[in-house]
């Protein structure tokens, strides 16, 4: 090992001389080359003649990538259209729809008044001993959380299923006990029957006691309606405020994606993505 090292030291100057000689040779041959006619340099320039250059490769990627993205965009649009049609059908066939009721001031309120807003509707009656107060407290909490923690404005509505006892003003007073944001609505027996039918709300008055008091058995559901006026989700007693808040936020994300959302190609082609 050490002898090898020593030998390399002995041969070192010779090695340097040989390399410098070789370098001089290369150097001079280069000059010689420059003096010779250009033809002899052909091999150096062959790369230029190759049909595939970085430029063509790059443009192939750009065009190909653009095409794939466009195909993806078309597929996305098709899926969105199917989803929109599906929702429209659900909205028509199943839960929700238009209504006309009376607010605490005695003014007519139509479902179309809430277009452009997220709405949560709960059906009940002001004489309800425990379930309705619990659910309205929960509704008020959900609406406050959505507004304060997530900057989402939701209009909460309470609709009575007991219009004979719950006048518009009585409903107005009742909802104020839970939140100033809740809009209490009543109406004629026919109007209430119509909105309950639309939302598939079951209600049935029980027998009257000696004080003429009675219980109304009714569906305990909070309905979520999107800014297009379509029913999108519902929450029963087992859903706590936190669960409902998360679900509303998820529904909002879905909705925004469906109706001209944040997905970037739809920004440049927004005219095409507007709901018809
Ligand atoms: Ni109740």
Which structural traits does this protein have?
single chain, alpha/beta, 9 helices, elongated, disordered C terminus, binds nickel (II) ion
Short characterization:
This protein is of the alpha/beta class and 276 residues long.
Topology:
Elements: H1 2-35, H2 46-49, H3 54-93, E1 100-102, E2 108-110, E3 118-124, H4 131-150, E4 154-160, H5 168-176, E5 183-185, H6 189-198, E6 203-205, E7 216-218, E8 222-225, E9 231-235, H7 241-258, H8 265-268, H9 270-273
Parallel strand pairs: 3-4, 4-5
Antiparallel strand pairs: 1-2, 3-8, 6-7, 8-9
Helix pairs in contact: 4-7
The structure holds nickel (II) ion.
Detailed description of the structure:
The longest helix is centred in the first third of the chain and has 40 residues, at 54-93. Strand 1 and strand 2 form a beta hairpin. The strands form three sheets. Strands 5-4-3-8-9 form a five-stranded mixed beta sheet. Strands 1-2 form a two-stranded antiparallel ribbon. Strands 6-7 form a two-stranded antiparallel ribbon. The chain contains nine helices and nine strands. Residues 18-33 and 262-276 have low confidence and may be disordered. The protein has 276 residues and is of the alpha/beta class. Helix 4 packs across helix 7. The protein is elongated and about 105 Å long.
In whole angstroms, how far apart are the ends? 86 Å
Order of helices and strands: HHHEEEHEHEHEEEEHHH
Number of helices: 9
Q: Could you list the spans in which at least 5 consecutive residues all have pLDDT below 50?
A: 18-33, 262-276
Mean pLDDT across every amino acid position: 81
Q: Biggest sheet, open or closed, and with what strands and sense?
A: 5 strands, mixed
Radius of gyration over C-alpha positions, nearest whole angstrom: 38 Å
* Percentage of residues assigned to helices: 40-55%
């Amino acid at each position: 090992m050490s002898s090898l090292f020593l030998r390399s030291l002995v041969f070192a100057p010779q090695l340097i001389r040989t390399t410098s000689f070789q370098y001089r040779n290369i150097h001079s041959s280069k000059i010689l080359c420059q003096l010779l006619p250009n033809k002899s340099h052909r091999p150096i320039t062959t790369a230029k003649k190759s049909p595939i250059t970085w430029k063509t490769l790059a443009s192939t990627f750009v065009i190909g990538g653009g095409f794939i993205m466009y195909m993806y965009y078309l597929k996305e649009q098709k899926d969105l259209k199917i989803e929109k049609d599906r929702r429209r059908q659900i909205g028509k066939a199943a839960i929700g729809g238009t209504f006309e009721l009376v607010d605490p001031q005695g003014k007519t309120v139509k479902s179309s008044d809430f277009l452009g807003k997220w709405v949560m509707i709960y059906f009940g009656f002001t004489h309800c001993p425990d379930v309705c107060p619990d659910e309205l407290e929960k509704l008020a909490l959900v609406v406050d959380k959505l507004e304060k923690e997530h900057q989402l404005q939701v209009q909460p509505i309470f609709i009575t299923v007991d219009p004979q006892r719950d006048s518009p003003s009585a409903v107005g007073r009742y909802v104020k006990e839970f939140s100033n944001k809740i809009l209490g609505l009543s109406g004629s027996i026919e109007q209430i029957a119509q909105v309950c039918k639309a939302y598939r709300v079951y209600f049935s008055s029980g027998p009257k006691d000696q004080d003429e008091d009675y219980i109304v058995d009714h569906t305990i559901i909070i309905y979520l309606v999107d800014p297009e006026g379509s029913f999108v989700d519902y929450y029963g007693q087992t859903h706590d405020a936190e669960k409902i808040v998360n679900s509303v936020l998820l529904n909002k994300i879905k909705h925004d994606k469906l109706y001209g959302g944040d997905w970037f190609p739809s920004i440049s082609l927004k005219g095409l993505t507007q709901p018809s």
